[in-house]
Amino acid sequence: MSKKDKKVTINDPKKRDEISYRITYWLSIISSVIGLVILIIIMCLACFDKSIFKFGAGLDLEKANNFGQFIGGFVGVFWTITKDRNGNLVSAVKTVKSHFASLLATTKAEIYYDNMSRSVIIGVDESEEQTKKIIQYQNRKLAGLIDEREEKKATVFIQNCMRLVKPMQVVNKFADQIFLPAEAKMLRRLNNHYQSFVKQITILHQYQRKRDERGRLITEIEDLKIACDILFDAIMLKVDDLDSSLRQFFNRMKEYIKKQAQNKSANTLSEFQFMQRDVRLALSMSKSQCFRCMEDLELLEYVQRTGGYSNRGFKYKIVYWDDMEKTRSKIKEELNKQLAQLKMEIPSDGISIMSSGKVITLSAAVPSGSEGKERQSPHEHGD
Predict the structure, then answer these.
(1) I need a surface site. Which of 6, 130, 223, 283 has the fewest CB within 10 A?
(2) In this structure, what is the dihedral angle of CA atoms 325, 329, 331, 334, given to the nearest 10 degrees?
(3) Residue range 229-252, pLDDT digits in tens
(4) 176 — alpha (psi -120 to 50), left (phi > 0) or beta?
(5) Are the C-beta atoms of residues 321 and 332 closer than 8 Å to each other?
(6) Treating both helix axes as pointing N-terminal to C-terminal, what angle do 244-263 and 287-299 enclose, rounded to 10 degrees?
């Protein structure tokens, strides 16, 4: 028998148990050491880059919380790693105080729901008219029909105008006389956004606005109207259950369903059934985007699945035909009515302000050379 054919056999049971115990013991020690080394490496990397634990897209919970603190005007306190004079890494607390402004673009704003109330949300116009305007501008620019020097000149002009704006205090005596619609969600912070926006408009018009005896700018009804016109779409997004892109999809789908129901002589629109493929082809959308929108509408109980199969497609019907245009008109009319009521209450000769028990009237027309006198305190003249 050759050496290759020889087999080692251990007939003693105690010897066999001892060898198996030693093998198990050393394997457990080696696996523990390897696991400990991997844990130490991960902890060292985490001290320098915390993003290794973030596997999803977007902001993680900690960053979203800090982002919300900045938006809300709070002081940001963070634990971080710094180096001392000897170059050693030590833990430290960093406190950040600053004015903060940001611009975010996302298709899933509900992920950061807590920060939605701190931000002014606007929707991108995805209509065919806006698409045509964008394509027309791109084509005109490539064709050399748009002068880039004029665009640059306009940009520089706006920048110079912003440099002339000075930080000033604003007093809005109409702040407690105009109210946003009660149907809006997160009304407390939305009202703060609106009042802050009115202040910004007053500051932008600081060279056309009057001042009180303390040098503060006085808000006029025109500022309130401009704020309502600009923020109206943002206010409606707070009132609407659907976000901007989902609302545009739902409106386009309703128009398509109405036309199909008329062609097929359906009895009622609520009983007309359709499939995702029909909507996708009619609206020129991708399969994933159409599926996501239909899924959201189904969760919000705007549409209902009536039948079908997963391999052949499901059938749907619209169960809630809302009239958002009517709601928009109602809220717009209510805001305009409040502004008209305020305009009727203003005296025809100007704006009256109470100060120290005395009434100061600022006339609407200020003659040249009287601006300096108007900004002085009335007590200096013995009025």
Answers:
(1) 6
(2) -170
(3) 888 888 888 888 888 888 889 999
(4) alpha
(5) no
(6) 90
| Nearest to 236, CA basis, from 247, 225, 250 | 247
Domain that holds residue 290: 245-326
In whole angstroms, what is the distance from residue 190 CA to residue 331 CA? 15
CATH code of the domain containing 280:
1.10.10.10
The domain total for the chain is 3
Tell me the CA distances in angstroms from 10 to 7, 17, 145, one per residue in order: 10, 10, 94
Rounded distance between C-alpha atoms, residue 257 and residue 253, angstroms: 6
Cβ neighbors of 94 (< 8 A, separation 6 or more) are 77, 78, 79, 80
Which positions of the chain have pLDDT values less than 50? Answer: 1-8, 50-58, 349-383
β-pairing, 217-218 with 170-171?
parallel
Residue 312 main-chain phi, psi, to 5 deg? -110, -10
User: Does 54 reside within a domain?
Assistant: no
Q: Quick one: tokens of 91?
A: 């833990």
Q: How far apart are CA 340 and CA 317, in angstroms?
A: 43
Structure pTM?
A: 0.61
Inter-axis angle of helices 287-299 and 276-283, nearest 10: 120
